[in-house]
């Protein structure tokens, strides 16, 4: 009937408005049941469960065998890591897979059969689930003794497919790949030509004494290639050059030429190419978000205009204000925005809305959430008004900064004086007394500010919240210290009592005071600009960071699988340590080592080593020996068959990702810097700056024709006209 | 009389045209004698003498005491450096100072008294000369035994003041300094806050065994600051973090946070700021050059139009073609350009030229020097025509590339096979025979190409010139080898005869073959693009490179003065070697060490060391000991009072200069990349790409009003109207 139809239209409009708010695509089924399912799927609870599931399945790697996650990584003190019994992590995994199964079926159903076949991400999702499940069955049927677990490598895919931002970014990176490949090819040519030159230049001579160092760096093709590759990262910069230079100064020309061409020109060319590709990236992405929003609102208008109550006589299609109010009440959105839209709807006082009017109402969504600070209290007493003027004045805040600086300096002085003292000689009286005074001042400052501004206004400033919270924590710590150790007096010695020793307490207080000093940031213009740029960057970089996490995870799991059980008896350690010396310096190498350190089965290797060295008690060994051993082990792996793995790691994490980062930073910063003067006028009003707002004056509004064309292409919504 | 006046006008026009060609300012005296002096001063000979003088005075540092420039830097084999007698370098210096004195007086005279007082560079020039001369007198009166020579530090100034490009660039860098300073301040705050945190976090504990490594990195304030500063360069990246990580994995958060904030954010922010400042730099500089050119031409027009022979009746001022021809004959310019201008003047066939026509004639100067390759010879014989088609075809060139690649691969294979062989076991027969065959092929290729293209056309391609030259050199080397060592035969052993051993000959041939392989570059599109970008960059970077040389020189001389005689008896070597380990890894540090190594007076120190170690014969010592010693010595200096010196060096050379380089590369590359498609149409015509041409379509022509206003401001030229 007409009533049911009307209900459907209203529901469709509600969903389209919600799509517009969240920048979602509107290409989904629009019948009643699907709409209910759609709203349920995108409800906060459901999305939260999905995110939790993804987090859980990724976090499993930290408890699964062969993990060694303990507090300390020092093999001497480390307790054995907890090994869950077979079936525990597997059942958690099954649960996760089931949730993903529900996710993929709902998603596929909602976009419809036709669209499903076009969507490669969904197909890949289903494939991944099938492979994971098959692997899971194999795992369980072998009682968790299988050596290769493919499903672990596939896990990061679940992160990727759940974020539309990441998918978009990945597409963008993908389109840059051909040009990056060209530069990498150039780098490879550069490297190989210079390697041949090096081998010809630094050949073995009859005098073994003199070319000793050449044997180390240019003994054969793989060694030479590695030496120069590491030189490209500038990690072995002086070492590889010194022997040549000492023989003949002219040899340095070779190394300087190689470094200048490779490191200065080619590496920066990569930055230039990536920057050039990503220059328009942010703008394009914001533009497509805007299109989605306008499309959602237009779709809502179109379905509302086909409501039966609309007078058929009207030339133009239009929407009644009552229907819109009904939709607004049902739609989930920011209450601040909702109120603003209802208010302007009432102010307009027209019964029928045209498309343009309708669109205009929803422009409220694009606006900054301007936050007005609550007013200060008005005091009657003349004295109180004077107090309010004095302590509400910015100069009082500056005085607070000066006092904080004085506190920092006093801590610094004490640190310098105590640097060489034994812990038993230390006397905490001076610092205790000083800090006590300063914390009292901070408390006083806070109270006076609250008095002057009123509690609500005080709390409405983020800097005050930061300040107040730290002051309260400091006060509590100080009171706790006095309760346990008494008031400071000469010879106030650090002795252990309760949870923390006095020394630890004092250190904690000092660290908090240093941290509190950051409150000066908003007072310095340039610093504030830089900090807001950085915060913006963090927002815009979420997708990139997500992809980085995915790559990290995949590399770590691959590393675990590759290097499991690769520990071999120690042999020719000299060459290894050289190979190590080259590779361990590669910038982000260590971070990876942390992640794949687990499967090295250090203990076994250590026992082996001490058998060789005829040392029985391994508790008597020095830490150095163990580190040396750890290094030799990793080198063994690296130099054996994992050099390629690490080079790939270096290329992806260090070269490409860092260049992406630089490109985005340039894009963000230059845009911000140009608009700096404009912004300075807004002083008391704090804007929530988002990417959308940053580009607002450059964005193009989509035309009516584009919107309607897109609407008519909708696979499920069939508009009457 | 009128004739003399006319002569003066003609001469003025000639000088203005020459100014326009060289992009020089026209603000100089314009009377007859001054014009003669001006042309003499800017003649090739004079400018060449000036450049030579600057080179000589800079190069003096390599022979002056305390220099140690010898072939090898190894103290064991090094011959004592040549010490010129007192008065020799000093008299050369006096000569240079006299040349500079002439230079500054001519320059000051030419721009006139009024302008002189406004020109700070000239004043500084005179001041520098006075100080240098005073220092020279002191030097000579103390018989070269003085300890401080200020004039050496001042020498780079002569380079700066002689290049207008460098002065402009310096001004540009100067305007970026405030913003750079802000970021550096931020870096300093970041560093100091994290240092305090580190000292509080990694404090000394009672268990000496456990915090051993903390004593190394965070023992006191200067040590902590250094550790974190070096961490900012990522040089000690794994080392400083490992002990903390092994104690508690959570400590790594501190280091990761520090590196991400400092190295990833703040350092790249510096890149962004510098790029933002330099985005318009090239365009602006080209624009001002264009203005100078147009102004010079306009000035020439104005003086020519006041010639007496011009009919007074003409409404507009105009210039007779005859006068222009006279000027053109006298002016020094590229003959190609001159011919083109004369040709178009004759084609125009008008007797009187208006200002616009005059300006248009000289647009020839802005045009590319389009080089048409001479035609191939036309053969009568059918066979020869077929030959010409076959060997003139690009495929023949590709075949040559394939053969060159095959040669490279064969050399590579031999290198890999011979890598572990003793020099006495090596047999050069295989490589000798192979190379002989390949070189014959190269010769044949060259001859056939000359046959097909004719010698002139062959030589008109740079790639052919490169190819042919290397082929000829290879042929000569090969013939020389056969003459001395006979033809290759099994057991062709490397034995020493004549200048080079057979082994060295073969190596040289191989190196040339590898070098010859670079001929493939123009055949690969992307490679060709990158190479042309790099070449352009080198052109545009001359000014920056000049400034870098100036900075290098000043730093090296300051280093020599600071560290002279700073060698002290060796004491606590452990801490030094740690300090060294931190500092020696700083990227460009080593390059500087080369420059300031001289005054270390290594020998004295070595003797001292061996006395301490009770070793009498120092020829028996191993090379390692000496290197260790050299390191300890440098560390001594560094850790004593030169830390600041090296930090300044790092900031200027590594941080600021590299960022400038990246900014210019981005600017250049992005401009080039956008115009790539456009360029692909030009295949056979090679353009000489200059910065001016790159920006031509963006440049704005100066208006007539601007030009005339500037002309009326000329301090010496007083136009009639």
From TrEMBL, chains A, B:
Protein name: Two pore channel protein 2
Catalytic activity line of the entry: Na(+)(in) = Na(+)(out); Ca(2+)(in) = Ca(2+)(out)
Subcellular locations according to the entry: Late endosome membrane; Lysosome membrane
A GO MF term: calcium channel activity
Native species: Peucedramus taeniatus (Olive warbler)
Keyword Transmembrane: yes
Swiss-Prot/TrEMBL keywords: Calcium, Calcium channel, Calcium transport, Endosome, Glycoprotein, Ion channel, Ion transport, Lysosome, Membrane, Repeat, Transmembrane, Transmembrane helix, Transport, Voltage-gated channel
Membrane-crossing segments per the record: 45-63, 122-143, 180-202, 253-275, 395-417, 429-448, 469-488, 508-531, 543-568, 588-609, 621-638, 644-666
């Amino acid at each position: 009937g007409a009533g049911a139809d009307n209900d459907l239209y209203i529901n469709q409009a509600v969903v389209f408005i919600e799509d517009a708010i969240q920048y979602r695509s509107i290409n989904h089924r629009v019948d009643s049941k699907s709409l209910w399912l759609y709203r349920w799927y995108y409800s906060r609870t459901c999305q939260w469960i999905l995110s939790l599931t993804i987090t859980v399945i990724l976090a499993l790697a930290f408890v699964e065998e062969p993990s060694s996650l303990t507090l300390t990584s020092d093999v001497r003190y480390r307790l054995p890591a907890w090994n869950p019994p077979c079936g525990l992590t597997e059942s958690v995994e099954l649960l996760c897979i089931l949730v993903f199964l529900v996710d993929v079926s709902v998603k596929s159903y909602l976009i419809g059969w036709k669209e499903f076949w076009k969507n490669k991400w969904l197909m890949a999702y289903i494939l991944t689930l099938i492979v994971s499940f098959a692997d899971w069955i194999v795992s369980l049927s072998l009682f968790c003794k299988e050596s290769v677990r493919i499903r672990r490598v596939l896990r990061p895919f679940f992160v990727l497919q759940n974020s539309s931002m990441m998918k978009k970014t990945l597409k963008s990176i993908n389109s840059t790949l051909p040009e990056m490949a060209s530069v990498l090819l150039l780098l490879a040519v550069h490297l190989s030509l210079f390697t041949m030159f090096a081998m010809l230049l630094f050949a073995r001579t009859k005098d073994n004494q003199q070319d000793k160092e050449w044997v180390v760096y240019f003994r054969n093709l793989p060694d030479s290639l590695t030496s120069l590759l590491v030189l490209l990262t500038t990690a072995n910069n002086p070492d590889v050059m010194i022997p040549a230079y000492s023989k003949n100064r002219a040899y340095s020309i070779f190394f300087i030429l190689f470094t200048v061409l490779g490191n200065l020109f080619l590496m920066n060319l990569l930055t230039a190419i990536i920057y050039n590709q990503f220059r328009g990236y942010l703008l394009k992405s914001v533009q497509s978000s805007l299109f989605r929003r306008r499309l959602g609102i237009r779709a809502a208008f179109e379905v509302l205009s086909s409501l039966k109550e609309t007078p058929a006589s009207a030339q133009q299609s239009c929407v009644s204000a009552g229907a819109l109010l009904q939709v607004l009440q049902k739609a989930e959105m920011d209450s601040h925005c909702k109120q603003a839209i209802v208010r302007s709807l009432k102010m307009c006082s027209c019964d029928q809305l045209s498309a343009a009017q309708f669109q205009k109402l929803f422009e409220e969504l694009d606006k900054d959430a301007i936050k007005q600070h609550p007013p200060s209290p008005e005091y009657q007493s003349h004295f109180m008004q004077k107090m309010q003027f004095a302590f509400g004045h910015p100069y009082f805040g500056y005085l607070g900064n000066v006092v904080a600086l004085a506190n920092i300096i006093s801590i610094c002085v004490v640190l310098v004086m105590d640097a060489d003292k034994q812990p038993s000689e230390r006397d905490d009286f001076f610092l205790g007394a000083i800090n006590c005074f300063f914390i009292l001042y901070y408390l006083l400052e806070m109270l006076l500010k609250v008095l002057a501004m009123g509690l609500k206004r005080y709390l409405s400033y983020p800097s005050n919240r930061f300040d107040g919270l730290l002051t309260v924590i400091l006060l509590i710590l100080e009171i706790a210290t006095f309760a346990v150790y008494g008031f400071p007096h000469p010879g106030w010695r650090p002795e252990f009592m309760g949870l923390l020793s006095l020394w630890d307490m004092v250190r904690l207080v000092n660290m908090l005071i240093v941290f509190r000093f950051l409150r000066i940031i908003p007072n310095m213009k340039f610093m504030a600009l830089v900090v807001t740029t950085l915060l913006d960057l963090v927002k815009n970089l979420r997708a990139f960071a997500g992809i980085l996490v995915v790559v990290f995870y995949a590399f770590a799991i691959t590393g675990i699988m590759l290097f499991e059980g690769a520990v071999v008896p120690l042999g020719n350690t000299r060459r290894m340590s050289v190979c190590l010396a080259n590779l361990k310096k590669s910038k982000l190498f260590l971070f990876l080592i942390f992640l794949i350190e687990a499967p090295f089965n250090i203990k076994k290797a250590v026992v082996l080593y001490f058998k060789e060295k005829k040392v029985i008690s391994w508790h008597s060994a020095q830490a150095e020996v163990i580190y040396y051993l750890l290094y030799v082990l990793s080198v063994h792996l690296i130099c054996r068959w994992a050099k390629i793995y690490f080079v790939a790691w270096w290329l992806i994490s260090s070269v490409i990702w860092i260049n992406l980062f630089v490109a985005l930073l340039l894009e963000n910063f230059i845009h911000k810097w140009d608009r700096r003067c404009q912004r300075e006028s807004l002083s008391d009003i704090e804007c929530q700056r988002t990417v959308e707002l940053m580009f607002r004056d450059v964005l193009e509004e989509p035309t009516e024709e584009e919107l309607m064309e897109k609407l008519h292409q909708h696979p499920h919504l069939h508009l009457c006209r």
